[in-house]
Amino acid sequence: MKLFELILLVSLVVCAVSVAFARDLLTSIVIFMSYSLIMSVIWVLLQSPDLAITEAAVGAGVTSILFFITLKKIRAIRKEEPDEPKER
User: Fold this and answer.
1) Across the chain, where does the E strand assignment appear?
2) Which of 4, 19, 82, 83 is most buried by a 10 A CB count?
3) Is 87 helix (H, G, I), strand (E, B) or coil?
């Protein structure tokens, strides 16, 4: 069991660092979602099921959906902008 906890903690740190260095916004959102799911499992191991459910619902669920909607809106705005004339 200690090995599983160690693997979870290492993967949590890896997710936290990789979000900071991710260049693509979609990739960073998916990594953030996995961070929240790993944190949810850690809360279960710490015998806090109420925090685990909250982390899974808010962290991985609602926040990630809001990030996806925001990303979609940003890309939609960029598509509506007129193209700049190309210089020859």
Assistant:
1) none
2) 19
3) coil
